[in-house]
Amino acid sequence: DAKTTQPPSMDCAEGRAANLPCNHSTISGNEYVYWYRQIHSQGPQYIIHGLKNNETNEMASLIITEDRKSSTLILPHATLRDTAVYYCIVRSSPNAGGTSYGKLTFGQGTILTVHP
Amino acid sequence: GAVVSQHPSWVICKSGTSVKIECRSLDFQATTMFWYRQFPKQSLMLMATSNEGSKATYEQGVEKDKFLINHASLTLSTLTVTSAHPEDSSFYICSAPRTSWQETQYFGPGTRLLVL
Lengths: 116, 116
Description:
The complex is a heterodimer. In chain A, 0% of the residues lie in helices and 45% in strands.
């Protein structure tokens, strides 16, 4: 699976949009971009994922560049409860099969701190 | 609501004893589950893949005789840390992919192990 690069930390004011970038310049055609977050002392939580089109759900939006080499996770109205470590993960489609099926490789992520 | 549970949520044990951690999928069947370990201020590291009805697959550097994995049913995987030592103290997290074509993974809340 392709590696990702994220800034180690970011700050955001409560109520403002939080834009978390991720670089994945070696991504290949069948690899998806997944975002998870981990609030302190809890298990990771799925946020969103996409292949090449922008995606939106009740939690966030995912913007993927046309060349797919980078993406941005957008939390439209950050709250204090969004303070967490955000992980951008690139992995093959489940249908690719092989021994890496289902594995998620976590990098260091971005520590997002939302302040009042 | 939670779809993957872990038990216990925390455990303290003496050096040399064995500790069993359970991971359950609550409303879906999981033929595959994953076990991660996370040390303080570090990211999650995959330890092993638990396969229902067959042997677990361990990541490089993880001792299979020390970390025993049993996946006896479609909703339960157990991780047993045998002869635990203080360096095994960590946060252990399991995950399971819900069966769907996009295979979102759900993580348990984690088990904090402290070996004295």
